[in-house]
Every structure is written in C-alpha cells, then in structure tokens.
Amino acid sequence: MIVSELALRNWARLPQRDRLISDLTMLGLEVDGVEAVAGEFNNVVVGEVVECGQHPNADKLRVTKVNVGNGELLDIVCGAPNCRQGLKVCVAKVGAVLPGNFQIKAAELRGQPSHGMLCSYSELGINIEADGIIELPANAPVGADVREYLQLDDVAIEIGLTANRADCLSQLGVARDLAAKYQHPTKFVDFKAELFAKASERVSHNETFPVELVDDQACPAYASRVINNVNVQAKTPEWMVQFLARVGVRSIDPIVDITNFVLHDLGHPMHAFDKANLNEKIVIRPANAGEKIVLLSGETAELNDNTLVIADAKGPIALAGIFGGENSGINPQTKDIVLECAHFAPLAIVNRARQYGLHTDASHRYERGVDPQMLLVAMERATQLVLEICGGEAGPVNLVGQIPSNTKTITLNHKLIEEIAGISYSRQQVKDILLGLGCQVEVDEVANIYTVTTPSWRFDLEIPEDLVEEVVRIHGYENIPTAAPEARLSMRQFNEADLPLNRVKDVLINRDFQEVVTYSFVEPKLQSLFHPNAETLDLPNPISVEMSQMRLSLFTNLYSTLAYNLKRQQKRVRIFETGLTFVPNAQAELGVSQELVLAGLVAGETLPETWNHKSQAVDFFHLKGIVEDIIAITASDVTFAPAQVAGFHPGQTAQIILNGEVVGVIGKVHPALAKPFGVSGDAYMFELKANVFAKTHVPQVQPVSKFPSNKRDIALIVQNEVNVGDLIIAARKAGSELLADVHLFDLFTGAPLAEGTKSVALTLTITAADRTLEDAETNAEMTRVVEALASEFGAVLREI
C-alpha cells in the first residue's frame, strides 16, 4: 500500500514528516520505504510558449519564445513533438540545476540561441510516463515556482499492511488512523456534507439503467448512474495525474483515472461501462459453468459457477469485484457511461481472482472488506469529478438492494484493558481514543464498563480484546513503561507415572527411526484408499487440490513420504510421526474430533547393509516387535487381534486392543495401494492413540532371588485360530506367584500335525524368592498351566 504525504494532509492535520513516518510504524502500519516524488532541482518555473516555429536547420527542433514572467521572453530551442504555441510548460532557466547535477547553461543549437530548457517529467525526476514535455493546465500562473505549483515537496510512503487492516487501503483510511493518534478529527465529515449538499444539483435528467440483483447475499447493494454526453477525450487534470503516479498508478484516460482516484483516495472500488455496449439490463448473478468473458487485458476467461459476475442480457460483462470486460469498457468513441459502485461480501470475492490468475486493486480490497457506507460517497465523488473533467449530464443514483450497517456492539470492561496492557488508563483516555477511531461509546461509570459500537470501516473489531489492542496501539506502544521481569521459581509438579511423549519417541529413534512432520492436509483420492466411504472434513479454500482434505489418520502422508524417498533411491525407510487427526463428529466441539496419534512405517531391510550381515526384509513381526517395545515402557496391557482394515493386507493386519477398546492398528499395506501412491515393494505401518502412553511403570524394589530358577518347556497342539498372545496371557493367569515368566520359543505347523492345527512351544520360568523349589512343586506349577490351557483353548500336550 502506497500513500502520499500530501494526500494524507488533505484529510487530516498532521505533524512534521519525520514524526509522521515514525508514528505510522508505531501504529502498526509499518513503513517499508519512503521515496521523494520528484528529484532535486531549482530555478524551474511555469512558462507560456508565446511563439513556436520550425528550426531552420533541423527537422525535429522548434524555436520558441517563452514567457516566464515579468515581461521576460526566453529564446529556447525544444525537440519535444508536443511543443506548441499557447502551451503552459515547465521552464528550467539558465543557472538551474536538474536531477543528476545537470546544469542549464546558455547555448546555441544549430545556429539558434537557447536560454533554458522545456522540461519533461523524467528530466525533473518525476515517475510519470509521458511523451514530450510537461503540459501544465491553462490556468497555471506564469513565473510560479514549479516545485511549489505541482506540490513536489511530497513523498510516497510504502506501508506493509497486515491482512486485517483493510480499512487502511486508502489515503482516507491511513489518515483516519493518524488523526486518532493525534486526537484531531479528519476532514471527511465536512467533505461528505458538502458533497451531498450539492448532489441534487448534479442531476439533470431522470434516466436510469435497469438493474437486477439475483444474489443479494454476495452483493447486498448495487448502485449505478447514467451520465450522458461525456467527453472521454478530455485531459486528466495534472493534479490527478500526479496523485495517481504517487500511489503507483498509471494515468490511462479521464474516466478510468477518476475511478482509480476514488479507489485510492476513499478506498471504494468503482467501474464504468460504455452504455452503448450494454444490452437491456445489468444483472448481478453467479456465473454459469463454462461461460466465457474477454477481459480488459484481452485475455479470455472460462468461468466457474462459484464466480459472481456482472452481466447484461447477452452474458457476463465483468467479473464482480475483480476485473471488467473488454466489450463493455470505455473506448475513444464512448459518449454515454454507466458508473457502478457495489458492495460485495468478502467471501464472494476471496480466492476468485486467483482462480483466473488475476490480482487487482479491487479484488485486493473486496477480499479483505470494503466500508459499505462509502458506497454512495464514492458514487457522488466520482460523479462530481466526471462532470468537472469530462462534462455531461448525470441522472439519479439507482440503488438496488440494501446497504448493510456493518457495525458491531462490544462490551468492554476497563479492568480487562489494564490486565492485558499492564498499565493504567483513565476512563477519559479510553473514551477519547475509541471516539477518535470512529466508535460510538457509552460509559457506565459505576460498573466501569464501555459499550462500544464500532465504525462501519473496521471489519477487524469483533471482541473486547480487539478494542484493548486499539487503546494500547493508539496510546503508543512506546508509552508502555519497561520493567525488569521478576522470576519466581517453583518446583514443577511431577508424577513419576506420567510418561512424556518424547520418551516414546526415543524408543523409536533408538530403533533407527526418523521423525517426519507432514501437513494436516491430504489429497482426497489418496486418503479414500485408506478410508473408503468415510466422512471427511473438506477445506472451503484449500491451498491446492492435493491439500484439500483434513487427514483422518497419518497413514496417507506416511505412505506418500515413503514414495517420495523411494524415488530418491532411499530403499530402507523407517519413519514415524505424531500429530492430530481430524474426524467429523457432530457431538464434538466445532463438529470435529481432534485426536493425537503416533504412527510409524518401515520398509526395506531390517538393518543397514553391512559386510557381515545377511540381508533380511522387514515383516509383520519385525514391526510388531517394535510396537511391543513402545508399549513395554507403559503400564498398558494390550493385546493384538486379527482384523480386516481398509488399505491393509487382510492376512497380515491386527487391531491393538487395550481394556476392550481398539487403540490402534498394525499391518502390511495392501499391494493394491502401491501403484496409486507410486510405491514399489512392501511396507508395514502402525498407528496408536496417544492416550495409550499416558502412564508408565513405576518401578517397585524387589530383592533378587539367590535361589536358582527352574525352566520347563511345554509344546501344545492348538487350532490355528488360537492366538499365541491369548495362550501366554492365560498361562500367566493360571500360574501362581511361583510362575515368573512365560514366553514363546517355537511355532510349528505341518506334518505330522493334523491339518488346521499348530504346535506352540512355551518356556515357563518357575522360581521362589525364599527357597530352592522341589521338582514336585515345579511339576505342579507346570501341570496347573497345562490344564488351564487345555480347558480354555482345548490345548493338547504334544508328545515328543
């Protein structure tokens, strides 16, 4: 955003430049750059070309006599094609110094004396594109200093605005903020009163152009006005050309210049149509998918049905709030125009320009919010300027729809201000600041509460904290006293049973895993492979199609990360991630359940390639062992049960169950998913809810037995459907306090076993802390376990 110091001073009484620039930054309107609007020069005055004739010895030169005041006529040779008799010009007299330390001296050009120079914009260091010398208005006073006459002691100030400060996207908006800082009113109230006092005088006929408002949610109000017999060949006034140049806009033609001036001065976008090219009526409606429009830039845009358009009876004539169409635009033959000024809802414009590769001054403002109460002011100001510059006869304003008030009422407790700011403010200070910002304020002095009605141009003021920020900002961050912080230390409450998530991560890192961090957004097509037919949370304004859904699990991004690494010749991949999943749930806050989970993936070899290691591919049991290592540091007693899970191999997938609740899943990724993701080879993944790791073991001191332990191996024949984990759990429950451990050491299937059965070999560790066990005690413990397993699972002790 670029503002002109001179334009700001036209709206408000302001201090010296240095303080002004400093205060802009302190107000949060950070100044990124300050640039003079003209170079350094002197002794350049307004002159009038009294005579202009052809140079006798040069086809491209003219010999002129120029009046520079006090009856003085200077002979000056000029090569500009636009030099002519009667023209008011900028004359650098002999002795003048122009930008670049260029000195003007008396000279003789092709035999003709020249005592000065007629200047162009570039020769005075003014950033305006124009052919030839500067053409000043006919009423420019001869002999006047050009720097003073064109008000060139001005600077263009570039401000870096945050997205919430749409109210400062104009000269008036920035001036309002400064006026609040200095507790001076702006000139806008008087300007508006004078503008509307003469509004009726501008109307000279009753013609209006028909307007149909189809979508009043996207466009609550639309104003138009017919102005006939305008002269589009008129010259844009020098003051307006200078203004536009200082805010970074090129002068085009008087009608476009006027709408651009209103946009940058008052902050409200406008557009002008050639009435002769409009058919029957103007219609504000959503576009029909596939409709096309040729834009003012000459490009053809094929429209989506989410785009609001301004159309006539034949089709679209402009992208609403973004860009005008070529066929209805102003051209040199235009005689009658239709001025339009509309209020569009930000959500109807946001991201629409990007869809068509556009970014315009209008869309930039409408996306962030435009003051609806400025609509008619902008219309009257533009009408005033059109009549003054281009002539014509104006009709009445045709307002369709209703202008929204856009104000909010906020209750602010004085105590909240001091709690947040950390300093004290008087009630009068707070009231004066809020009034200076354009708010209406009622004070309850007993309850110390302010009832604040925000102005229509402040879209960002919604909650009491916003008002607190405004009070502190306007009063000045630099006025907040500095104080050394006091550090009061206290012991952190720590429960030994609490398990930090980093401890769980350490287990994986020690197993050669790398932590990854991926986006919470995923590609819908890929996510549907892991979660077919699942309800998802779709983003209304995604960064891209590939990031348009919130993730239901971490599987999609982990598997995509594997594909990314495989394409870069990383064959052995071991990664994990912790993050939130987002599952639609009507009963949850904001309609979505957010749950922290831990997920991991392994692919390739179990160990890095070495000279003394035989390569072995990862498998289900390799990953299961890793998951058991993780769970081993917790107090969780989990079990694994075969499961059918979408996206995973049906024969190598299990649910992880804690206290009867499924808390995770582990398994081999289904081979059918490899091609859509671009993966080659097998991969195994797991996911666990973070609440599984909430608690850990608290070590209990126990004496180490000095007596030997006995180990007994038993081989049991069971049905294939029986889970080994269930056998181990049942064995531990069946044993007495003498049974110290049960673990699997062999699993066998095939002949000579019967079909559908398997042999499970378990080692029982039996010991006592106070004595050496007799064989009878050991055998009794083993018998107790075998009988329990036979009763519960039909296990038969296998004979050797």
From TrEMBL:
It comes from Psittacicella hinzii. Residues 405-482 form the B5 domain. This is Phenylalanine--tRNA ligase beta subunit. The gene is pheT. Residues 705-798 form the FDX-ACB domain. Transmembrane segments: none annotated. Gene3D superfamilies: 3.30.56.10, Bira Bifunctional Protein, Domain 2, Ferrodoxin-fold anticodon-binding domain, Nucleic acid-binding proteins, Phenylalanyl-trna Synthetase, Chain B, domain 3. GO terms for cellular component: phenylalanine-tRNA ligase complex. It is found in: Cytoplasm. The keyword Cell inner membrane does not apply. The keyword Transmembrane does not apply. NCBIfam families: pheT_bact, YtpR.
